[in-house]
UniProtKB/TrEMBL annotation:
InterPro entries according to UniProt: SurE-like_Pase/nucleotidase, SurE-like_sf, TTL
Organism in which the protein naturally occurs: Blastomyces parvus
Survival protein SurE-like phosphatase/nucleotidase domain segment(s): 3-237
Name recorded for this polypeptide: 5'/3'-nucleotidase SurE
One Pfam family recorded for the sequence: SurE
Polar residues composition-biased segments: 83-102
GO cellular component, as recorded: P-body
Amino acid sequence: MHILVVNDDGPPSQKCSPYLFPFVKTLEKAGHLVSVVIPNSSRSWIGKAHIIGEPLQATYISPEALVTDSGTSTHRAHDPNDAGTNGLSVPSNQHGRSTPDTSRPWVVVNNGTPAACTQLGIYSLFPDREPIDLVISGPNHGRNASIIYGLASGTVGGALEAATCGKKAIALSFASKEKQPAETIQAASRLSVKLIERLSAHWPGDRVQLYSINVPMRLDVEERPAVYTNMLQNSWSKSSLYQEVDIHTSQPEKASSNNSNNINTNGDINLREGTSSPTKRGGHDDQRVQPPQARYFKWAPELSDIQRSVEASQVGTDTYTVMNGWTSVTPLGANFSHVPGFSGELIL
């Protein structure tokens, strides 16, 4: 098969993306033609989003150039004036336009998301290769079990994008963020390739548009069952993703810069919804109007309530299955299914 691999963790690194390189090597060892398109940095929690208004720069690269001897990523944003650094180069034709070098089957996309990498990989980046048979998004660094994680996941988002392009798609997650021995990663990769080959060969038509696979990181994972599951239905019970910060005490220079950017030379405060003047003139008196007060929040997920729902999950769910050391395989449709039982006119 010609398999397109995308991810949301970015280039190989011990910290953020330790599973990608060994997994791709295992796919190739099994005889598959593999093309890889990945964002230049982590895009976790981004779902199936595309970043509009920014150009995407796709750089063809030898995969070995992405990894140092210590296994950390060497990739940085590509400087067009420094084409040879770290093995990064975009071949150009006589008109100065980049031309695909498909002898380098890895592509790094600046400003890319998993969904964008999927689109580019299917339609644009490998014209000299046979069409894509299957898209694998992952392996994610950590599990993507339950709808809270599934709907937010860039890994699942990359697979969803492939499904909406009419391709078979699998979101693959290795369910641990802890550092793993090489032998455990290799075992998870071997099992994943066997599962992927089996699912692809017996795809049940339009009934399934993508699978979400969560693999427990255990040395004996190949000896333990892989079972079909449902996604745990959970939800936030409190605001758990962001924490308010006092930007004036934590980042005074940035706060000052932000204020100067928001106030123009006429003293007006520019807002997304419109403008507000700091003075209101009526009659002979000027009435001072307080400008809108900005509040600042940082990304600081507090996941204790989600963890409680995971720990209370029932047999048959993806979370229960992977937490108990079995591999979870969840068949999914790429849609927001309507709820049956509603029809006719709404009387107001």
